[in-house]
Amino acid sequence: MSKTFNVLFLCTGNSGRSIMSEGLLNLLGQGRFKAYSAGSKPAARPNPLALELLEKAGYDTSGMYSKSWNVFEEPGAPVMDVVITVCGNAAKEVCPIWPGHPATAHWSYDDPVGETDEEKRMAFFKVFNQIKQRIEGLVSLPDEKLEGLSLKASLQDIAQKPLA
């Protein structure tokens, strides 16, 4: 299969979990996937801890920024094959009607917060590894699992697997 799958990760602020998901899928997707991220109420900029973890993994974060999901409703925007919410708030919001009727899923991750800088760093590290675990599941799917109803079922299967 030579199709590249466009995947949009949504989180309210588009500053942490969705940014890490975008970067990890672009890093690990080996050209089969092109990832994007957005939010309903985007933050001023991505969280520096999210960017730091992506950079340590080998991803160039220079072009990453927090953006509204409205960007993907504009003429000429890429058509998504998959839309995945990664935070509880975004999953509960009324999302736009996406052109092409993409497969959708919710991959829940805790908000990476903490009282101290060390607690925040550890929380981001934990969520980063959980996202990586699910992204590795997605990129390892055989081509036949990326079509039609099989894609939706595969996304749900990945969401149900226990996270480390």
TrEMBL record:
Pfam families documented for this protein: LMWPc
InterPro entries: Ptyr_pPase, Ptyr_pPase_sf
Taxonomic superkingdom: Bacteria
CDD domains named in the record: LMWP_ArsC
PANTHER family attached to this UniProt entry: ARSENATE REDUCTASE
Record-level GO BP terms: response to arsenic-containing substance
Keywords: Arsenical resistance
Keyword Electron transport included in the entry's annotation: no
Domain Phosphotyrosine protein phosphatase I positions: 5-141
Protein's recorded name: Arsenate reductase
